[in-house]
Amino acid sequence: MADENMDTPTEKIEETLNITPFDKSQTNIDDKEMQKIKIEENSDKTNNGQTNNDPGNCYCGKDRNLNIAELLCAGCSRWFHESCINYQLGKLVPFMMNYIFMCKNCSPTCVESFKKNQAPFPQMCVTAIANLLQLAQKDPEQRMLFHKDRDIIPFIECHWESMTTMPRRVTQSWHATIHRALLKDVGTLFTMDENNTDGQLFGLTTPDLVLIKPNYEAMIKGGHLKITEMGVQHVVPLSTGLRGRNAKRKFPGEGTGAGPGKKGRGSDLTAPKLPAHGYPLEHPFNKDGYRYILAEPDPHAPFRQEFDESSDWAGKPIPGWLYRALSPSTVLLALHDRAPQLKVSEDRLAVTGEKGYCMVRGSHCATRGTWYWEATIEEMPEGSATRLGWGQEYANLQAPLGYDKFGYSWRSRKGTKFYESRGKHYSTGYGEGDTLGFLIVLPNTYDASHIPNTYKDRPLVKFKSHLYYEEKDQVPEALKALKPLVGSKIVFYKNGVSQGDAFIDINKGAYYPTISIHKSATVSVNFGPNFKYPPQDLVYRGMYDKAEEAMAEQSMADMLYLSENEGKLRLDTFSL
Fold first, then answer.
1. Which structural domain range is residue 157 located in?
2. Which of 47, 263, 444, 458 is at 20 to 30 A from 60, Cα to Cα?
3. Could you tell me if residue 471 is inside a domain?
4. Radius of gyration of the chain from Cα atoms?
5. Helix segments in 166-322, DSSP class H
6. Phi-psi region for residue 37, left (φ > 0), alpha (ψ -120 to 50) or beta?
7. Does residue 389 come out as left (phi exceeding 0), alpha (psi in the -120 to 50 range) or beta?
8. pLDDT for 501-523, tens place per residue?
């Protein structure tokens, strides 16, 4: 455990107050050189030679206030009050040294940036004693020395999440580590007085609390900061993470560093690469009254950067508005929106049934306009059958299309058309080798209901390294909302020949290309643009064209959501 190995080189804390931990393996600074950096050398100036008491401190221009958390800018070396900073900083305590902060005047993007690092125990002791000293100034005694068990450890325990990104220790073994850290740096960081009454009491070698600050000079040499023509810039690490059921946050570095032969989970912020067909091979299915929508990080969401760089969200649910529904770039058969027993081909353009009727929908839907797609019956063994057509999102996946009010189908046997389980004669049947066309005409009107759902207010769940929005089915409400859409219709084609209008004034809604199969028939689909039998009697769009349009619609829906909720989407007020 890290708290049981204080003598290792990577855990050694240099003999100075203003130091922030960094990886010495990434720099050529040795311990002797670092020990030359003394508090006295920095007592009158900060890293850029400006005094700590510069009257230009903070945006407000007011002097420092040691009773509240303040941050030192790595660029201009000015102090900024926590209350004056727009960036959502999370929990902080005064006299922290384990952070990197850039004010908006120094940031190349003119936006504040903040990163809290893991604090080693000696540094946590300095912060704790400094806060105790500041609090003691209000007491008549004005104590300068504090007891490990009565003062220092209780303060650290109370403010653990504010002081460091380390996970809170489950056992109390870290108490002994605190004691070793205090004793080890007596004379450099700490003073100690021992008497028969109180035992060992600890203080700071330099009680001037104004001097406690991050050592940005060491961070520059350590690679955490870099000097460019635009000034000092924060180097953002590539690996931080999210994890867990209910999409809980992962501590930076957690799950990494697996030994030889072990599988390390690595970082979840670097989303696993999707297969060529654009959807995870292992995924949750839409079933049992819930639907799952694949999500991706939304770079335009407010406080996205703060969330990515903060560790305060470790183990907590992720706000849904930080993500967005992923819009597939190609129209294919949906892997998640199907009955699990159906076998979808690797290219997601063919499906084979098994046993009783069950269904698969396409990945995209139509809400207005005229759309067309084709299906070819590749195999139809004896006793098998299909019902193909158009279905809404609530059409039952474990039933034939046309079983309920959410779908309209054309059956292979006898050419019967189905809606709400009622079959009517429509045309002659079709079979193996036939290519069928499916045309839907929806009035090309502009309606608020055409805007796709953003799902940003839904909870996120994690499944096999990917995040999904989880939405509960609202079937009763959807049934009540069904109304005929005047001017709409569905037409079926067999080998290029129109079979006439199958359904007129269908229910209003979003319609997906839908296939339902009985037993082991195989159906391939063609969403365009090169159709075998393109309709000649009207203007239409192939379903392939819906992919690009859906991306634009989804982006617009996301922007509307973020605009309508501007000022309400905050990390500090988020709750499920």
1. 1-238
2. 47
3. no
4. 32
5. 173-184, 216-222, 304-309
6. beta
7. left
8. 999 999 999 999 999 999 999 99
